[in-house]
Amino acid sequence: MAGALVGRTVAASDFRVPRHATASLAGERVTGFVARGKHMLLRTDGGWTVHTHFRMQGSWTVLAAGKRLPRSRADAARLLLHLDDGRTAVALDMPVVDLLRTADEAQVVGHLGPDLLTPPGQPGGWDEPEALRRLAAEPDRPVVGAVLDQRNLAGIGNLWAGELLFLRGVWPWAPVGAVDLPPLVRLARKMLVWGFEHPGMVTTGDTRPGRTHWVYGRAGRPCLRCGTPVAFRPAAGAVAGADRETWWCPSCQPAPRAAADPPPAA
Fold first, then answer.
1. How many CB atoms lie within 10 A of CB 62?
2. Nearest alpha-carbon partner for 97 in 118, 81, 117
3. Less Cβ crowding at N or C end of the chain, within 10 Å?
4. More confident residue, 194 or 31
5. pLDDT, tens digit (0-9, with 9 covering 90-100), for 122-149
6. Full DSSP string of 134-151
7. Does residue 93 register a pLDDT over 60?
8. What sign does the CA torsion over 142, 147, 152, 158 have?
9. What pLDDT score was predicted for residue 123?
10. Which structural domain, as residue segments, surrounds residue 8?
């Protein structure tokens, strides 16, 4: 998106969200398009930022000059930016579309921890000591909830959390204080950087169907490492600090004897 937009001027904009329905970015030149976890920040030379958040379904796309969205997708557009080269950038199925002054970006991303994919030294960029400090601040919290919390480190989703903990042999509900955090955090960054450079989110190195992930999405199927059936816990609100579906191998990621089962669902 940065390659397609930065340096281009917005010829016309169409915000299809009630709050900004009358806003216009016409004449604004795009100066940046950066990611903070699933938050996207599109900046202009007039000091404006378009803030979008993907959640689980949003996406950005760029239509070539003269092209339109298929009729079946037209209603999915939340924002259209018609560019000076004839192309159109479209935010599709975007749960969050907001417009604010660039100087106020901290209102929407200031709570985020260091971003695993943003180079160190850049605003919001990777900072291992800070990520470790934030994680260690709640030593009794289940590690799966801690690594998914974007306030600790930004960029880890459910798939990456499950695969990360499997590769480190960590039971998802182990307390943070009992986990060797530096190698966990370093592997998290290594995985996300690799995944960014190799689209497809393959964590096993095996691209064959059903073998792309160690545990994610493999409930009841044999662990690819030891053959034990992969365990699964459904989403259960905010129970035990993790409200997401969780997969793990009971043999490769054993629970302490005193906690042989995951916390019960609500």
1. 15
2. 81
3. C
4. 31
5. 888 999 999 999 999 999 999 999 999 9
6. HHHT-TTSBHHHHHH-TT
7. yes
8. negative
9. 83
10. 2-109
Give me the residues paired with residue 14 across strands: 80
Domain end point (choices 109, 144, 171): 109
pLDDT at 265 over 70: no
DSSP helix/strand/coil, 119: coil
Could you tell me the CATH number of the domain that includes residue 211?
A: 1.10.8.50
Residues 193 and 145 in one domain: yes
Q: What's the pLDDT tens digit per position in 5-24? A: 999 999 999 999 999 999 99
- 93 and 186, same structural domain? no
pLDDT at residue 163, as a whole number: 97
pLDDT, tens only, 145-189: 999 999 999 999 999 999 999 999 999 999 999 999 999 999 999
Contacts of 225 (CB under 8 A, 6+ apart): 214, 249, 252
Give the rounded distance of the alpha carbon of 67 from its chain centre.
Answer: 29
| CA pseudo-torsion sign 170, 176, 181, 186 | positive
CB 142 within 8 A of CB 174: yes
Domain count, the chain: 2
CA dist., res. 51 & res. 40, Å (int): 6
